[in-house]
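Let us begin with a simple case.
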Amino acid sequence: MNSQQWIAKADKYIMKTYGRYPLVPVRGEGCRLWDADGREYLDFLAGVAVNNLGHCHPRVVAALQKQAGELIHCSNYYHIPSQIELAELLCSHSFADRAFFCNSGAEANEAAIKLARKYSREKFGADRYEIVTALASFHGRTMATVSATGQEKVQKFFDPLLHGFRHVPFNDAEALHKGITPNTCAVMLEPIQGEGGVVVPSAGYFREVREICDAHNLLLIFDEVQVGMGRTGKLFAHEHFGVVPDIMTLAKALAGGAPIGTMLAREEVASAFGPGTHGSTFGGNPLVTAAAVAAVRTILEEGILNHAEEIGEYLLGELESLGEKFPFFVEVRGIGLMIGMELSVPAGDIVKKGLERGLLLNVAQDRVLRFVPPLIVTKAEVDQMIGILSGILAEM
C-alpha cells in the first residue's frame, strides 16, 4: 500500500491520541528514513531521542535476531542472563548498585516514585510522601507521572490528580528550598528539560539542589529518560553538573529502539523494594535486554560519546550562525546533541515545511525547534539539515 492508503486505514482504526504528520515510515538506516512511497528523509528527531545509534544499527539488529531465535520472553520469576548483564553494565558505569527493569520512561519514573515513598516511609514514617518536581517538566503519561509533570496541558482533563506532588520553578534553588515541607520525601528533576523547551540549568544549580536534599534527608531523583545514554556527550547528563543522584531513570535510547525502561538506585535506597513490592511482566525480558546490552556496549566502545560532543558543538555553532540572520531568532541552547533553537514565533509550520522537503524536526513549547538527531550524525548531514532549514527560515 502507498502512504495515503495506510493513512486512510489508520484514520479508520487508530485512536487519535497523536497529532500525526502525513508520513508512513517503512525503512530506516543510520540517520535516514524512507516512507511507503519510497521518499527519503533526513531524521533529526530520532524517534524523539530514541534512535541514538541511528536506525537499525547492525549490532542492535544482530542482538535482536540472535535472541529472537533463542528465547523472546520468560517470567521475572526466573533469572535472565541478558537482564543481569545489562544491570551489571549500567551499575558499573554509574553511581548505582541495583537496577529495576520495566517497559518505558513513564514506568521507570513510576517505579522511582514508589521506591522513594516506600524508602522514606520505612525510614522516616508515613507522613513523608511528597515529591517536589519542576514547572515545565515532563515525566510521563501514567496518572502518577502526569501528576508529577509540571505542565497543565498534560494534566488537564484527568482530575483528580494523584495527591503528593509540588511544583516549583526549574533552575531556582531558592524556590526549591521554599517548596520543601515536613511531608517531602524526594526531589525529582530532569538534568535538562526536554519537553519543557530544551532548558539547560545554570552551572551551580544542581550542586545547590544536592545540598538542599542532603540538609533535609531527601532523595534526589534524576529523570534521564530523554537526556541519558550519550545524548549530551556523556553517558548520563548529570555528569556535566558534578552531582550524583540517589535514583535515576532511563528509557528511550537504552535499547537502540526496543521498548525498555530502567530505574537505578544506590543500595540503601534499593533495599526498600522487596519481593512483591513492585514488578513488570515484560520488564527486562530477554529480547529487549539483549538489544540494550548491544546498544550500551556500542555507545561505550565505539567513540559515540566523543562524537556526540564534537558534532553537538558544530551543530550548535551552525544554528547560532543561521539564527542570527533572522529577526525572529531568540537563542540556541543545549549540550551535546540535545539542542533547542528558540524563536519569537510559533515553530510548527517550520516542522511541516521541513517534512515536505525531506527533513524531520520537532517543536517543543510551541516556539522551540528541538534537534535530537542520532548520535552518529555526520557533519555532512548537519550541513544538509542547515541548508534545508535556512531555506525555510528565509521564506518566513
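The second case is a distinct protein. As before, the sequence precedes its C-alpha cells.
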Amino acid sequence: MTRGFRTIRDGVTALALLAFIWLIAAKLNDRAEIAHTGRFHAADGDSLAIGQERMRLYGIDAPELSQTCERAGQPWQCGQEAKRMLQSLVTAPDTRCVGSDRDRFQRLLVVCHADGVDLNGAMVRRGLAVSYGGYRQEEAQARAEKAGLWGGTFEMPRAVRDHARETSTLRDALGFFGW
C-alpha cells in the first residue's frame, strides 16, 4: 500500500512541478501590450512615429520611399504614394496602434485601427503594400482588382532593399580599394 501511495505522491508532485514551470514560462513570455493614440507621422508606407516611438506595421511590406513603379507604361512614385496614403489613414482622431514585439531595429510591430478599420489591411487592400506574413486575403483582393501596385509592374519592396544593400556593400568595397 505504501509503495502505491508513493507512486501516486511522486506523480502528483511531478505534475505540480511541471505546472509550476509552465506558469513561470508563460509569465516570462507574457509581453506587455503597448498602445499608442495621438498624432502619428508616416515615415513611409509601413512605418510610423509618435513622439520618440518608432513603429512598423505588422504583416505588411510597402514600397520603399524612393521606389518607382510602373502603371500604364508610365513611372509613378509608388513609395511616396504609399506614404501619403498611410498618413491620410492615421489622421482619424480614433487611430490606435497596438503591439508587443519589436523588430531588429527596435521598432514596435503594430496593428493600427481607425474608425473600426484595420489600417494594415487597408494598405494591402488598396494595393499600396504587399502581404508580409499576414493579410493574404486583402492581397488577393487587390490583385484581382488590379489596385495600386497590382495595376502595373513593380519590384517587391524586399528585393529593392536587398539590391540597395548589395549596391552599398559593393560601393564600399570599391571605395576601400580606391576605385
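The mean pLDDT is 87. The longest helix spans residues 2-29.
Keep these points in mind for the review questions at the end of the chapter.
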